[in-house]
Amino acid sequence: MAIVVQKYGGSSVADVERIGMVADRVAARKASGRDVVVVVSAMGDTTDELLALARRISPNPSRRELDMLLSAGERIAMALLSMALNERGVPAVSFTGSQSGIITSDAHTNARIVEVRPFRVQDELRRGRVVIVAGYQGVSYKREVTTLGRGGSDTTAVALAAALEAEACEIYSDVAGVFSADPRVVPEARRLAEISYEEMQELAEAGARVLNAQAVEFAKDRGIALYARAATGDDGETVVRRHAPRAPGRVVGVASETGLVLLRLAGGDLGELVSLLERLDTRAAGAKQLRFDGPLGASLVLSLENLHDFAALRAEIQADVPGVSVLEGVGAVSAIGAGINASYHNVREAVRLVSEADTNVLGVATSSFRISLLLEEAKVEDAVRRLHRGMVGDA
Amino acid sequence: MAIVVQKYGGSSVADVERIGMVADRVAARKASGRDVVVVVSAMGDTTDELLALARRISPNPSRRELDMLLSAGERIAMALLSMALNERGVPAVSFTGSQSGIITSDAHTNARIVEVRPFRVQDELRRGRVVIVAGYQGVSYKREVTTLGRGGSDTTAVALAAALEAEACEIYSDVAGVFSADPRVVPEARRLAEISYEEMQELAEAGARVLNAQAVEFAKDRGIALYARAATGDDGETVVRRHAPRAPGRVVGVASETGLVLLRLAGGDLGELVSLLERLDTRAAGAKQLRFDGPLGASLVLSLENLHDFAALRAEIQADVPGVSVLEGVGAVSAIGAGINASYHNVREAVRLVSEADTNVLGVATSSFRISLLLEEAKVEDAVRRLHRGMVGDA
Fold it and tell me: What is the value of ipTM here, to two decimals?
């Protein structure tokens, strides 16, 4: 029987009522004649609440113990969803990441899935059960519990879909698909009917929350189509799949990030750069790193999101690398589209538009899919609106 | 190096501050030159809160999924305690029941420990770390997560102490030792300096909360001394160990239970009794069963405590076994002491004392360590006070 993998985010299972609505949707999919595997995140703000508890105990908790703590969240959500399905007469069983065979690297709090051995999931599907799997978590080769970082449940879903040779991977959230910008910031943003893996990956890396970048990379490698939908209400969707390239240079969307830290080496001393990168390798393995070329020499941007102990790291860096300057409160805005930097026109236009929001552009980075600009965090939303109005084409 | 196993109950780790106090106590024990293994329960009312969530979703949740849900509680507590120790400069690592090698039967929500394979615990002790272990949970031979029923963390501690050949097993709770009755009910109750395994086991089975009966049985089988202490404040303790028998017939304490259900077969039809027991075997495996001889024929008492779905079971029993009567709202009071039923004097005296509280004694059961009487739940506290005043000897 064809297999469908569904993933539901934390806001979709935030309380008993919403867990019931998800159970209804899963039951309907099962009744349509598919084997269904459901990947769930922790309920609502559980992960943030557990993290806050940990910080009250230790400003710099062990990442191994953080994983032990945080992985409890999905366990609660999956057991409750399984009970809700059984209550509806749909036989279901829940499995932890470890029981589902999600094998990861041992990089605690930001592990990568290296292999999936879904034998128990397959056994239960053959018995006609819906299988509920804890998202965001796995087990390392050292038999330690690991977590995959923010958005990791998407990656769990895609990796399982690949290992199970699923017909489709459906990602449910509180947004009905992928939009050309965050509709809360840009009211005229429109839903993209379809988008390529590469564009989706760049949008996600540039800060779009709807799909996780590593998940999209996985889907691309295995050729799995992703369907991004709302868990309730709106029936619209965005399909992410391999397809004919768009007109080069066309901009499909705009995304942004805040909570960034800019590390600048004004002098460009090679020894200092090496020290800095070594320090980051051991201490900031969980942090996304972007390299920017700015008007002030080599610079490097860290996202604080997965970096659980920046205060300590900042002190270490400033002690070891005296030439570095550390600027917090930085944001980034990006325009995404295949071949966007084929001509200088787009880069020049992006800089011009963002400068109108904030004359102090701190850095520019380009790739064949993306133009990103660094600026003061407080100016990000205005810059997003200007970029969207000036650069995103009509449907 | 000598190993000490400590167990802390849910009220001892109910919030961040109390977790810090436990960490201080563990750190002091480690500094005294012992290898320390700490077994923790879930924080405060976590288990009851998770159970309430489950009941909102399903009146009769799958016991397998209940175990998945409830085992999340200890995982949170153990990770936070490990962080608190690391924060104090004491290297610590936390393990789930499964990682600690706690192998159990597959009787979900009421599993029994069948074997302990503490290889990872021993490895970490050799590295000089304090090892924190999730109480109350294990893994079955079928690789399913199981829980041990109420008080199961005590059992985890004793089983680990036995497997590790520990020097001592210290059980910390909010009470400083074992008392001759619950001091909240009987203000003149006194702490017992020491008590035999058999008496402790009977006290626990009769409803004393301070130590779990299966844990005491484990300790007896392996000859491990148990030290019951308060997690904070009072330095008093009770030692449970093998020792010279007391004067036969002396009563060491009084205990009670409420929330019982009395099943009565007035006619004494053997076929009906067999039907009833079969039904209970499959559906009430988690419920403690006591057999009583009462004035009204054969009867059987179930505790609702571990019975997650009595309403359904009641309907089934009444459909299958028409001759049975089901009486809820029943309590039991017990007097405990080695050789207590050597003469009829003690039984007669117990019945007389309890009759003064409730003329309607529903049943009497005796063993060489215990005299138990069934009565209306509402009369239990008064009966406990009368039994204690009339039968428990002075220090």
Answer: 0.80
**Number of domains into which chain B is organized:** 2
Locate the chain B residue with the closest alpha carbon to A74. Answer: B72
Which residues of A fall within a CB distance of 8 Å from B53?
16, 76, 80
Q: Is A301 within a domain?
A: yes
* Domain range enclosing A289: 253-391
Q: Which CA distances in Å does B329 have to A247, B207, B261, B303, B369? A: 76, 16, 7, 11, 26
Q: Tell me which chain B residues have a C-beta less than 8 angstroms from the C-beta of A87.
A: 57-58, 61
Do residue A41 and residue A167 come from a single domain? yes
Residue of A nearest to B98 (CA): A143
Same domain, B8 and B151: yes
Which range among A184-193, B71-80, B261-270, B372-381 shows the weakest confidence by mean pLDDT? B261-270
CB contact under 8 A, A57 and B99: no
Which of A83, A99, A145 minimises the CB distance to B54? A83
Structure tokens at A134: 């804890």
Last residue of a domain, one of A173, A189, A219: A173
Identify whether A225 is part of a domain.
no
8 A C-beta contact, residue B136 and residue B110: no
Interface contact flag, B79 A69, Cβ < 8 Å: yes
CATH code for position B263: 3.30.2130.10
Residues B17 and B140 grouped into a single domain: yes
Q: Do B130 and B14 share a structural domain?
A: yes
Question: Which of B57, B78, B129 to mutate: most A Cβ within 10 Å?
Answer: B57
Residue written as token pair 């409730």: B358
- How close does chain A come to B213, measured CA to CA in Å? 29
Angle at which helices A72-87 and A63-70 pack, to 10 degrees?
10
| Tokens matching residue B246 | 């007391």
Structural domain ending residue among the three candidates B147, B173, B199:
B173
Please indicate, yes or no, whether residues B370 and B268 belong to a single structural domain of this protein.
yes
Residues in chain A: 395
Q: Are strands A226-230 and A237-240 parallel, antiparallel or unpaired?
A: antiparallel
Tell me the pTM: 0.83
Token pair recorded at residue A160: 């399982």
Contact B129, B326 (CB under 8 A): no
Among candidate residues A145, A57, A74, the one with its CA nearest the CA of residue A109: A145
> How close A191 gets to chain B, by Cα (Å)?
35
Q: A53 and B16 in contact by Cβ < 8 A?
A: yes
- Say if the Cβ atoms of B68 and A50 lie within 8 Å: no
Taken as a whole, chain B contains a residue count of 395
B87 CB neighbour count, 10 Å cutoff: 17
Query: Looking only at Cα atoms, what is the longest distance across chain A?
Result: 68
Q: Is residue B182 part of a domain?
A: no
Beta strands B370-376 and B363-366 are antiparallel
Are residues B290 and B386 both part of a single domain?
Answer: yes
Predicted pLDDT of residue B286: 47
Q: Residue B74 belongs to a domain with what CATH number?
A: 3.40.1160.10
Q: pLDDT for B153-204, tens place per residue?
A: 999 999 999 999 999 999 999 888 999 999 999 999 999 999 999 999 999 9
